[in-house]
Specification:
This protein is mainly alpha-helical. It is about 65% helix and about 0% strand. The chain folds into 2 domains: about 5-90, Rna Polymerase Sigma Factor, Chain: A (Orthogonal Bundle); about 100-185, Arc Repressor Mutant, subunit A (Orthogonal Bundle), CATH 1.10.10. The longest helix is centred in the C-terminal third of the chain and has 24 residues, at about 160-185.
């Protein structure tokens, strides 16, 4: 469905019409579930984040100005909602790693400087490996790799230092690599 076809539904949502909200919810639920699944490990948490995200979408839809993609606007809300959930979950001790434990990373690729590995993996393999990461590592990895954010913005969003962001990205990648190599060996 094109943006022009969505516009009447979005405008109806801006007026608080429940039928239009239901249409938008049903139209985008699976897609937004997939977005949130990149950040959360269990289905219940993902469902909670998606529900909370849609509440934010409908509460703030009046601020959507039809400049840019509606889907992109919703996606940003969902990602921010997932990050907020991770922050809340870890509020008791947001200990994410020490800058002193930062491993050397190639600035061009972001991967640890290491010997090359002769193995190929598909997207499904990588997504399964990501599910095994801690929520914090997964969040940094997603923000850097999929959302193309720099370490400064990741640090700002997560309330951590730039060094911690870099360290967590390196550890996330190392863990994914180890998970993938272990699964290929079996």
């Amino acid at each position: 469905m094109h943006e022009a076809e969505l516009r009447p539904y979005i405008e109806a949502c801006q007026l608080g019409e429940r039928r239009a909200q239901r249409f938008i919810f049903e139209r985008y639920y699976r897609l937004m579930f997939g977005v949130c699944l990149r950040y959360m490990s269990d289905q219940d948490s993902v469902q909670d984040v998606v529900q909370e995200g849609f509440l934010k979408v409908f509460n703030n839809i009046g601020g959507y100005t039809f400049k840019g993609s509606f889907e992109g606007w919703m996606r940003r809300i969902m990602v921010n909602t997932a990050i907020d959930a991770i922050r809340r979950r870890n509020a008791a001790g947001w200990v994410l790693g020490e800058e002193a434990s930062f491993e050397p990373v190639d600035e061009e690729t972001g991967w640890e400087e290491d010997e090359e590995v002769d193995a190929t993996f598909n997207v499904h393999d990588v997504m399964e490996a990501m599910e095994q990461l801690t929520p914090v590592y997964r969040a940094v990895f997603n923000l850097y790799v999929f959302d193309n954010l720099g370490h400064q913005e990741i640090a700002s969003r997560l309330g951590i230092s730039v060094g911690t962001s870099k360290s967590n990205l390196a550890k996330a990648r190392r863990n994914i690599r180890n998970i993938l190599l272990t699964s290929k060996a079996h």
